[in-house]
Amino acid sequence: MKEQIQQRANELQEQLVEVRRHLHRYPELSFQEHQTAAFVLEQLNSYGIDAKLHSETGIVALIKGENGDSDRVLALRADLDALPLQEKSDKNYCSEHSGVMHACGHDVHTTSLLGTAMILHDLRSSFAGTVKFIFQPGEEKLPGGASIMIKNGVLKDPEPQAILGQHVFPDLEAGKVGFRAGKYMASCDEIYLTVKGKGGHGALPHKVIDPVLIGSHIIVALQQIVSRRSNALLPTVLSFGCFNANGATNVIPDEAKLEGTFRTYDEEWREEAHKLIRQIAEQTAGSMGASCEVKIEKGYPFVYNDPLLTDQARSDAEAYLGKENVVDLEMRPTGEDFSFYTHTLPGTFYRLGVRNELKGITSAVHTTTFDVDEACLSVGSGLMAWLAIQNLKR
After folding, report:
1. Which one, 53, 168, 327, 355, has least CB within 10 Å?
2. Counting beta carbons within 10 angstroms of the beta carbon of residue 275, is it exposed (0 to 12), middle (13 to 18) or buried (19 or more)?
3. Can you tell me the distance from the alpha carbon of 214 to that of 205, in angstroms, rounded to the nearest whole number?
4. pLDDT in tens, 174-189
5. Over 90: is that where the pLDDT of 394 sits?
6. Which residues are marked as active site?
7. Looking at the chain, which residues constitute the CATH 3.40.630.10 domain(s)?
């Protein structure tokens, strides 16, 4: 079976490259993936795979094994959306949509899952059970396409017992994959603060309530949440990347706006930290004669990789790729809406190597020069097909 999958994945490589480059040329932003969804649906239907639209710009497909009866159902997931970045590339498959780019590898995820579907469709007489393919919109934007699809019943009719997902990893060479059991990626919340004071002439600070100075004090005060209020053994990140006051060299404005992110790996601490952020920001502003409006948009929970499922998938990956091509991953404070699945049913989220230093493919995700070694496509497609069949056997 392994040799059959590897052979079929290699045979599909040229077709997968064409699919990936098409997706890369025509990226679409979160929840706007109409052309992308139509293309994926066309690819699946043309291959004889039962698929349909779900949640407006998502796709769900089913492949039932024909080698015996089994009520086992496994879900596999990919994401469709791109990022609002202007690509800097001279490749002939560079984005043709101005200001939009597949800078996070979702074109690779979608292509790989299409390849997996083709392989499993070809081999459906060799396994029992059902594979549910989920192509979801909006991973890059709150509230996350995963949460919407789950709300709309994507994990029902039939109900999967487990779910697998993969994500590109430019730190890892193409041909390798990485796994981590337990807590892997952080929850992520967006913080919006508006400090309201009293503006005036910069030369007369005694006549104003300076929201710029007060906002600075708030940022400093909030750092004690990480350094003094959180458990030292629990990773926590609180960062502010935007401070906008719109004053001038001699003008102190009426208000200042701050935007940041909070990330951690524990839901109870997450809720407590939200209260502390609000309390410290409001009280710090109040002690200086100003006020502070606090808005916290709760984002994705942390990604939890089921230990048993992950250990099994890691072992299966070693059997497919060789032990030397499977590595352990460290915890990572980036966010992923795949977490909504892992808080609903057993799941594992692993990483697919896409790096090739000889070809100059080394850029990080979410950068304007991100690209992948397309050799990862047959690896990603074949490995996921192998993991699916091995999982269904259990």
Report:
1. 53
2. exposed
3. 13
4. 999 999 999 999 999 9
5. no
6. 81, 139
7. 2-185+303-393
